[in-house]
Amino acid sequence: MVSSDQRRRQLAREKFARQQERRESARSKARRRNAIIATTLVVVLAASGGAVAAGAFKSEEPKDPASAPEPSSSPSSSPEPKMAIDKKAKYTFGLETSQGDIAIAMDAAKTPHTVNSFKHLADKGFFDKTKCHRLTTQGIFVLQCGDPEGTGAGGPGYTLPDEDLKSLGKPGKDGAVTYPAGTVAMANTGQPHTGGSQFFLVYKDSKLPPQYTAFGKMDDKGLKAVKDVADAGVGKGGQAPTDGPPKKAVTVEKATVKKD
């Protein structure tokens, strides 16, 4: 028998799926309507040597507190970085943040495209001085980071393929799997192969559809730091009391990716 809590979560996920469909439809219309503007923006940013920002046509629809993390929303405008890592090696994604250091273990053999991208971006200083813009404390339990704009709409200007999704396990009757506390996974638009630079740190076991690449695991120190941020709750400016910017602001001062 399905419990009331399980039913509530299932309804929340179904609602999220409908929202994603509406968002994608709105984005498609916006992309067609703003094709000339978008092309001009890409040319200007490329000429200035800056990274092309994703999310030019961000949806303003309220977020569902039990939904998956808010992704970057614009299409890829450039190819992903050329493979430059040892695909058989393990790497550490290190985050020096205003709330403590977080070390994330990554296995390139399982998620080579994701690890390669994160090393490419970290080496460029892409994540430095960025804010973790979203905390959820109900339904799912994550802190989301990696957006250079700090709005949930930014990205690196390219998208990544989904990787190693089968390792997440077989979904239950509700269509979800458990992302264990300590997991670090990619945010996306809800569509396949749409990850960018945004990622989420799971600080408590969370049930989600198996469509978010889990590419790393936090160390105990990092997990405690994220839990402390979560304990302080959501600050002002969120879509709900349990979904919005963390009250205890988190800034990534420096990010590095090093081979173990």
TrEMBL record:
Region (Disordered) spans which residues? 1-32, 56-83, 232-260
**Does the record carry Isomerase as a key word?**
yes
What keywords were assigned to this record? Isomerase
CDD domains, per this entry?
cyclophilin
The answer on whether this UniProt entry bears the keyword Isomerase reads yes
Task: Tell me which positions the record assigns to the signal sequence.
Answer: none
- GO MF annotation: an example: peptidyl-prolyl cis-trans isomerase activity
Q: What does this protein do?
A: PPIases accelerate the folding of proteins. It catalyzes the cis-trans isomerization of proline imidic peptide bonds in oligopeptides.
Name this protein carries in UniProt? Peptidylprolyl isomerase
Q: What is the lineage of its organism?
A: Bacteria, Bacillati, Actinomycetota, Actinomycetes, Kitasatosporales
